[in-house]
Amino acid sequence: xxxxxxxxxxxxxxxxxxxxxTSIPGVxxxxxxxMREKIRERMMEGFDEGLKAHxxxxxxIWIQDxxxxxxxxxxxxxxxxxxxxxxxxxxxxxDPLICKGx
Length: 102
Fold this sequence. Notes:
The protein is mainly α. The chain has helices spanning 2-21, 33-64, 71-93.
C-alpha cells in the first residue's frame, strides 16, 4: 500500500510539473529535455524510497505478528516488487512533448 501511495504521489507531481512548465492557452504543453530527465530521475528515486519503505513495513509487521510468516511477508514483498517494476517501466516509457530548441 505504501508503495502504491508513493507511486501515485510521484507520478502526480511529475505530471503537475510537466504541465506547469509551459501552460499557455492554445499551446500544447512541453518540457525541456533536461527537465524531462530530471523529473524521470526524481520519479525513480521516489520508487526506490517507496520500495524501501514497503520492505521496512513488511518486516515490522512480521516482528509484530508472526502468524503465517514468512508467507505473508513474501506475498507482501511480491506485491511491492511487482508495483515497483511496473512503476519504473512506466516512468521509462514516459515521453512528454519536448519544447522546440529544448
